[in-house]
Design brief:
single chain, alpha+beta, DNA polymerase, domain 1, Enolase-like, domain 1, 7 domains, 5-stranded antiparallel sheet, 37 helices, 38 strands, iron, flavoprotein, AldOxase/xan_DH_MoCoBD2, metal-binding
């Protein structure tokens, strides 16, 4: 992201006519991914460079305090001077020859021709069997993963004829080697002569992200679309403007229309070369009665965030008004292009064009055109959401022509720059600004605890200098590993070999369970509930299970070898695998759940059901999985050491467990193993249990081969093996009164745990905690943890809690629908009183003044203007047919538990301090809070200069031989537990230093500095290192967190797109240890929750193998999908005497508040269905529907009505 911002700043500086604006700042990081922050602070940092920014809109809480003047804010921001800070690429490096890329020049060669003739000679001279690849930016390899190298790579970027841009009154010619970014610039410059060019440029800015557009070429995009079925936006745009292409065929240059080009046999399989594209200029004929219209459309999971579309379209039409009446519009000519719908390539809808040409537009004409179009847009048989894609094509055609029928004349002139219609490709300037959150209240009671201190390591990470496992320099003899995994859910492994029985290049060894030392065990992970195997033995029990580790000289060779592996399976005489929870029930395949993890029922459900005036019986709800998508995949490095030892660097949330598993696997004592974790590049639970087999496999390789072994899982393998969040099926009966008051809830729940127990037996407890946030009257449940032949699921941020909280909301929503009541009123009437809270949570409820949820509920109602906005939403929905809004307020009650945590504080001779804790820095700010706590704790000595102590403290990496009993970093409480551990260490050190301090104060009349005190302590041989194991009191180790969220969304009924207009969050963080860190955690968790509820599909095929393989088909939120207005308030609720300095957790609970977005979407859909039912657009009930999770665009559209356009037109034809 820093590089993307830098690029945008440099471009703005080089373009004197273009300022770096707030809009440009937001666009600069669009398409970039971040899983931790929620994007808002990153965008604020980018916006701080903008010429039109209002500094008061920036939530840079570490630089200034709330309420400070603009002058103070400007003074505290680091200065920026483009002349000093923008460093251009050194000229002398541009002149240097390219460094050898490691290719064997006898076989692999790069060639750079400087003319078309030279290119032709190179291609003609190539041997018939040689493989050639023409490249400019080579960005296609990001989509089509080339497994084999080509014999020759030809860089065509220096051929003038292919790199030129030529303009005249007829149009514009763009060379095939011109980058997409340069093509956009050229089209924008020509927008005065043809507004079509401007709209094309606007659409093309949605392709990939800026770095891809800067490298990828127009020609490369077209050739991938023509030869490899790439879903191209460029192709669709060019088809709609009747573009042509020029090709080199032998020594001849041929010109064909783009439509003809797409129908040719694959260009990549021939020696034809695309040279340039010719785009004609389209201007309206003279006269008031005729004009050209052009619009482009794109429906994608992310508007500008680097996502392939479900469908794109572009339409060009020449229309004229009827002269006699001046009413009605005739289509004189039209080009209708559609792409990315699952066909071979973009197409022109010729039949529809022919039908419309010469027709006077009417509802019946448009209805017939829609019918023809549905027969033309035919997605391939394996295309997902095929009916949805058809409905998009229909919707866009409707959206283009309908305004001309409705108004009977042209709404606005094309040349005026206004939109023909409410297009789904917004102009760049219309990108909504993201508002910032500045609701940070600092506390000085335990200074520097409570201050918004900048996160430790922030500068290192932003500059790329922070060292992660894969950044550790590779040793000369280092080997690299990759897993070979099963593709069958239950089968005997007959043999393992490589394709054509040839050992791939660079392979040193293939390790299986048979290579585990005789004294060791086949173990790859362990938890409280049991171990999991490192490798499958003779039988693979799930798809995705590790079969072997291939070890090679490079990571690329290891990955390629794993792809070339051939596993022969045998399924004879084996029972059918268990792949669903229903199968598990039939075969009684369950994991045992210990009573301590299975909560007690509450009240008398039978009595509660008898008291109910209304009931919902046997309602079903299903929840899917979610992938962690940490930025750093699973990584480890193992080094063999002397005396039968091994040292392992692991990206893990649980180094202690990694340590133990490695020792058990290798059959050596634990003191022979050392595991080091400095920092983790994102975890969210996925780097806990799932990190263990990666580190163990590396350790096995290093131990066996006596060479270092490193492994960095590629994203596809990581996704297949990650497991992710637990899918589940829920059935419930609920009883309630006519006023919405609940009387009883009965739940039956089936949780898919997968093959191994992992941490799945904790799920019943975790689910029931947040689900009890409402007063159900009485509550009973039957929860079964199912053992299936699927990859084992594991803990993911708020495991079980997010599902439990959402289940409660779904039930409340259905209760309100059945009563035709306002759902917010039903929520409010069922919020706990303190007495009912004690009934459902027992002693965990705490004291009455700690129950802050009612206070938060009312406070957010005022600050978010919830009631006023609810009325505005109703008004909006009455006035709009094709867009509907919803607003929802959701509470959370989240139960967390502290765990024993070690800490160690040592004061060195120069007065600097080194700290070790069991908790791992995963990006959550743990080190920052620990550093603040040590500064506070040691500050109790009351030396001169204590205020500078914070800068003298360093928290160091976790080392399992230096700090034992580290446990798991999980559950949101590791930061506070680690802080308490080091605070206790500081208490010990202060007690040791106090006698010396008192003595020095008696001997000196003045104050004592820290350095002098420490020198004196060293001179007296005082032990200045203290360690503790913090053990929380049983009575107070669990506590409740409270928060409320309000979200407002707008749903587009044509596409199913949901835009989050605003989210307001209020969260009780107690006395925050660092409010800036907790604010970041709150925002990051909420946005990750948006991903779960609205976007992220993590599914498996019929064999249980994960379908999604990376960023192309797994979409996490980006800048353009988070709330446009995002207001977060961290509430300081006073003292919580049993908490660490009265603080509370922030890492996971706010994720649950993202259900407010889903519930608001449900509300908008309900409004859409009400209108559609009244107009007969859909069948069924407006209220009786279940909105799946995630509520993706196809899901939302299907509930709003896939055929709503057709039925709307039918109604118009009938005069309804």
């Amino acid at each position: 992201m820093c590089i993307s911002l830098y690029s945008s700043l440099a471009n703005a500086e080089n373009n004197s006519s273009k300022d770096f604006t707030v809009s440009e700042a937001e666009k600069s990081v669009s398409g970039n991914l971040c899983r931790c922050t929620g994007y808002r602070p990153i965008v604020d940092a980018c916006k701080s460079f903008a010429s039109d920014v209002d500094i008061e809109d920036l939530g840079l809480n570490s630089f200034w305090k709330k309420g400070e003047s603009k002058e103070v804010m400007f003074k505290n921001l680091p200065p920026y001077n483009p002349k000093d800070h923008l460093v251009t690429f050194p000229e002398f490096l541009k002149k240097k020859e390219k460094v050898d890329n490691g290719s064997d020049h006898l076989k692999y060669r790069w060639t750079t021709p400087f003319s078309v003739a030279e290119l032709h000679n190179i291609m003609e001279a190539a041997n018939s069997g040689d493989s050639l690849k023409l490249v400019v930016g080579n960005t296609g390899t990001g989509y089509y993963k080339d497994e084999e190298r080509f014999d020759r790579y030809i860089d065509i970027s220096n051929i003038p004829e292919m790199s030129m841009i030529k303009k005249d009154e007829k149009g514009i010619e763009i060379g095939a080697a011109v980058t997409i970014s340069n093509a956009i610039d050229a089209l924008e410059k020509e927008s005065k002569s043809s507004y079509v060019f401007k709209k094309m440029a606007t659409h093309m800015e949605k392709i990939g992200n800026r770095s891809i557009r800067n490298s990828g070429s127009i020609g490369g995009n077209l050739v991938m679309a023509q030869s490899r079925k790439f879903p191209s936006d460029v192709t669709t745009l060019l088809l709609a403007v009747d573009a042509s292409v020029y090709m080199l065929n032998g020594r001849k240059t041929e010109k064909v229309t783009l439509q003809e080009f797409l129908e040719l046999s694959p260009v990549l399989d021939s020696k034809r070369v695309l040279l340039k594209v010719e785009i004609p200029s389209w201007t309206a004929p003279s006269g008031d009665d005729t004009e050209f219209l052009f619009e482009s459309y794109r429906a994608a999971p992310r508007s500008i965030g680097n996502a392939l579309p479900y469908l794109n379209a572009a339409f060009l039409a020449l229309v004229s008004r009827q002269e006699a009446s001046r009413k009605g519009v005739t289509v004189e000519k039209c080009f209708l292009a559609f792409g990315s719908y699952g066909g071979d390539h973009s197409i022109r809808a010729i039949e529809v064009e022919t039908f419309l040409t010469g027709k006077l537009l009417s509802y019946s004409v448009l209805y017939e055109a829609v019918g023809l179009l549905k027969g033309i847009i035919v997605p391939g048989k394996d295309t997902l959401h095929s009916e949805y894609r058809k409905s998009l094509a229909v919707g866009y055609l409707f959206e283009f022509f309908y305004p001309l029928i409705e108004s009977g004349h042209r709404i606005c002139s094309l040349d005026s720059g206004n939109k023909h219609n409410n297009s789904h490709v917004d102009t760049v300037k219309s990108l909504p600004f993201l508002s910032s959150s500045q609701q940070v209240l600092e506390s000085n009671e335990f200074k520097p605890i409570g201050e918004a201190v900048i996160k430790v390591g922030a500068a290192l990470q932003a500059s790329g200098e922070a060292v992660f496992v894969d950044d550790i320099p590779t040793l000369p003899d280092c080997l690299h590993g990759a897993f070979i995994y099963s593709t069958e859910p239950l089968a005997k492994i007959k043999s393992l070999s490589f394709r054509e029985n040839v050992t791939p290049t660079g392979v040193f060894a293939v390790l299986t369970f048979k290579d585990i030392p005789q004294q060791g065990q086949n173990i790859g992970s362990k938890t409280l509930f049991g171990p999991g195997p490192l490798f499958a033995d003779e039988l693979t029990r799930c798809a995705g299970q590790r079969i072997a580790l291939v070890v090679a000289d490079t990571q690329k060779h290891a990955d390629m070898a794993a792809k070339l592996a051939v596993v022969e399976y045998d399924t004879k005489n084996l029972e059918q695998p268990i792949l669903t929870v229903e199968d598990a029930v039939k075969r009684s395949s369950f994991f045992e759940v210990h009573p301590m993890f299975y909560p007690e029922p509450v009240g008398d459900v039978i009595k509660g059901m008898e008291e109910a005036e209304r009931k919902i019986i046997s309602s079903e709800l299903r929840l899917g999985s979610q992938y962690f998508f940490y930025m750093e995949p699973q990584t480890a490095l193992a080094l063999p050491d002397e005396d039968n030892c091994v040292k392992v660097f692991s990206s893990s949330q649980a180094p202690e467990y990694v340590h133990s598993v490695i020792a058990t696997c290798l059959g050596i004592q634990e003191h022979n193993v050392r595991v080091i974790t400095r920092r983790v590049g994102g975890g969210f639970g996925g780097k806990a249990v799932k990190s263990m087999p990666v580190a163990t496999a590396c350790a096995l390789g290093a131990y066996k081969l006596q060479r270092p072994v490193k492994m960095f899982l590629n994203r596809k393998t990581d996704m297949i093996m990650a497991g992710g969040r637990h899918p589940m099926k829920i059935n419930y009966n609920v009883g309630f009164r006519s006023d919405g008051k609940l009387t009883a809830l009965e739940l039956t729940m089936l949780i898919d745990a997968g093959l191994e127990p992992d941490v799945s037996p904790i799920m019943p407890r975790n689910i029931m905690g947040p689900l009890r946030k409402y007063d159900w009257g009485a509550l009973s449940f039957d929860v079964k943890v199912c053992k299936t032949n699927c990859l084992s699921r594991t803990a993911m941020r708020a495991p079980g809690e997010v599902q439990g909280s959402y289940i409660a909301e779904s039930i409340i929503e259905n209760v309100a629908s059945s009563l035709q009541m306002d759902v917010d009123a039903v929520r409010k009437i069922n919020l706990h009183t303190y007495d009912s809270l004690r009934k459902f949570y027992n002693h965990i409820a705490g004291d009455p003044d700690e129950y802050t949820l009612p206070l938060l509920w009312e406070k957010l109602e005022i600050s978010s203007k919830f009631k006023e906005r609810s009325e505005m939403v109703k008004e909006f929905n009455l006035c709009n047919v094709w867009r509907k809004r919803g607003i929802s307020r959701v509470p959370i009650v989240h139960q967390v538990m502290q765990r024993p945590t070690p800490g160690k504080v040592s004061i060195l001779s120069d007065g600097s301090v080194v700290v070790e804790v069991g908790g791992i820095e995963i990006g959550q700010g743990l080190w920052t809070k620990v550093q603040q706590m040590v500064a506070y704790g040691l500050g109790m000595v009351k030396c001169e200069g204590n205020e500078k102590l914070l800068d003298r403290i360093r928290v160091v990496q976790s080392d399992t031989l230096g700090m034992i009993q580290g446990g798991f970093t999980a559950g949101s409480t590791t930061s506070e537990s680690s802080c308490e551990a080091v605070r206790l260490c500081c208490v010990i050190l202060v007690e040791r230093l106090k006698p010396i301090m008192d003595q020095m104060m008696m001997e000196k009349s003045g104050s004592v500095t820290w350095n002098i005190l420490i020198q004196q302590a060293y001179g007296q041989y005082i032990n200045l290192s203290a360690s503790t194991l913090y053990k929380p009191e049983y009575s107070s180790m669990e506590y409740l967190n409270y928060g409320v969220g309000v979200s407002e969304v707008e749903v587009d009924l044509v596409t199913g797109k949901t835009e989050i207009l605003r989210s307001d969050i209020i969260y009780d963080c107690g006395k925050s240890l660092n409010p800036a860190v907790d604010l970041g955690q709150t925002e990051g968790a909420f946005v990750q929750g948006i991903g779960f509820f609205m976007m992220e599909e993590y599914t498996t095929d019929e064999k249980g193998l994960v379908v999604q393989q990376g960023t192309w088909d797994y979409k996490i939120p980006t800048v353009d999908t988070i709330p446009k207005h995002f207001n977060v308030e961290i509430v300081n609720t006073g003292h919580h005497k049993n908490r660490v300095l009265s603080s509370k957790a922030s890492g996971e609970p706010p994720l649950l508040l993202a259900a407010s977005v889903h519930c608001a979407t449900r509300s908008a859909i309900r409004e859409a269905r009400k209108h559609s039912l009244s107009s007969n657009f859909i069948d069924g009930s407006d209220s009786e529907f279940e909105l799946p999770v995630p509520a993706t665009m196809p899901v939302v559209k299907s509930l709003c009505g896939l055929y709503s356009v057709e039925k709307y037109l039918q109604g118009k034809i009938k005069g309804q």
